[in-house]
Amino acid sequence: MKIQPLGDRVVVERDEGSDKTAGGIVLPDTAKEKPQKGKVLAVGEGRITKDGKRRELQVKVGDSVLFTSYAGDEFKIDGGKKVLLMREDDILAVIEG
User: Fold this and answer.
1) Rounded to whole angstroms, how far apart are CA atoms 67 and 59?
2) C-alpha span between 63 and 90 (Å, rounded)
3) Which three-class secondary structure state does DSSP give residue 83?
4) How far is 45 from 37, CA to CA, in rounded Å?
5) How would residue 2 be classed by pLDDT, with cut points 50, 70 and 90?
6) Which of 29, 45, 58, 97 has the fewest CB atoms found within 10 Å of its own CB?
7) Interatomic CA distance for residues 40 and 66, integer angstroms
């Protein structure tokens, strides 16, 4: 299944959380912290401004991004793969390198 976000929305695949603490204790799924970074899988066409023009998004497919902890809605696609659908405003920064 392919997802094409609309407007200023972005599809992000969240990075995997760590299974262990620094001391080596294995964490159950309920205790894992969800990472606030991920990879952009798809972007919408952009936001329509007040003057009726479309403004392109600042992120592009393949970018690694940081986002707010409660950003977006989580969906399952392609046999259980989880992705986040969020607005561009929820993205705080693009990670370079």
Assistant:
1) 12
2) 15
3) strand
4) 22
5) confident
6) 97
7) 10
Q: Residue type for 33, please?
A: E
**HEC assignment per residue over 33-77:** CCCCEEEEEEECCCEECCCCCEECCCCCCCCEEEECCCCCEEEEE
CA dist 92 and 86 (Å) reads 12
Phi, psi of 60 (to 5 degrees): -135, 165
Q: Region 64-86: what's the mean pLDDT?
A: 89
| Closest alpha carbon to 67 in 50, 44, 89 | 89
pLDDT digits (tens, 9 = 90+) for 18-72: 666 677 777 776 666 677 899 999 999 998 889 989 999 999 999 999 998 888 8
Residue 63 near residue 39 (C-beta atoms within 8 A): yes
